[in-house]
Amino acid sequence: MKVVSKYIAEDGKVFNSKKECQDYENKIKLKDIKNIKFFDENGNLFENVEFDLFHVYTNFYKVTIPTKEDYKALKELFNKEGYYLGNIFSEGTWYRITDMYEENYELISEKRYKEIVEAMQHLIDVK
Asked: Where are the beta strands (DSSP E) in 1-127?
């Protein structure tokens, strides 16, 4: 007896390897969020999001979501993949802030981010 393993993508396409199937499914899933940009804390754009969504999700510092349709696509993808979208509730630019131990984080709007930066600058200027 011979056991033959095949991997079937959500759309029915058949692959011989698990990796090929996963890469294909990631490309399909992420085509709807191609306009969304993820950046690290140094301002570098994450390239090849489709091959490492988990890495992007756990390491992004800033995300820009151009339209409501892009937001809906991101929300749908994150829900499907089990990722928490946090306080992101619309299109726009959002920042991730963490506590001093980098254990907890919150996602805040660009407006709120600028308010925090301005308040911190005021504290620095007072000294």
From this structure: 7-8, 14-15, 37-39, 62-65, 92-98, 105-109
